[in-house]
Amino acid sequence: MSLCSDFMALVDIGNWSHIPFYVVGEATAKTLEKMTVSHPSKFSKSLIIGARETGKSESLARFIINDLPTRSSGRKLLYFTGDKNRDTFHRILTDSKVDVHGLMVYETVEASDLGDKIAEVVNQIVLSTYSARTFR
Predict the structure, then answer these.
(1) Which residues make beta-bridge pairs with 101?
(2) CA 136: distance to chain centroid?
(3) Of 107, 102, 67, 64, whose CA–CA distance to 83 is shortest?
């Protein structure tokens, strides 16, 4: 995952330590947790929530609908998203009268050495299969 400059600009302009961050999975939670270390006055690790309870966007949306009323932040949500997603998350929240604003903060990029990595894995599989047959 590659964070976009728009997100880093948001980090620089404010204090986010009182804002809950709802995250869909453990990888996103870990990325944000690293930011609580690099920017301790701007983020609160205790407000990175949802990863363990959800795992996919539909579950996260329903989690937010249940959790949001317990927060004093109202019913507005800034939705940090990637370039590859469906509208399920956004639709569920807007259907529940949550004011959702999306901002793309990461994008999927092609690995320049993907072909080499695939060839390496295939070669390892072939070699280990050959070795297993040789020693039988």
Answers:
(1) 78
(2) 46
(3) 107
- Give 77: exposed, middle or buried? Use CB within 10 Å, 0-12, 13-18, 19+: buried
Q: Any idea of the CA torsion for 31, 37, 43, 44, to the nearest 10 degrees?
A: 100
Domains, in order of start, for the chain = 2-110 (3.40.50.10090)
pLDDT tens, 74-116?
677 777 777 887 888 889 999 998 888 887 777 788 888 888 8
Q: Please state, in angstroms and rounded to a whole number, the distance separating the CA atoms of residues 135 and 31.
A: 44
Is residue 72 predicted with pLDDT exceeding 50?
Answer: yes
Residue that has been written with the tokens 């959800």 in this structure:
54
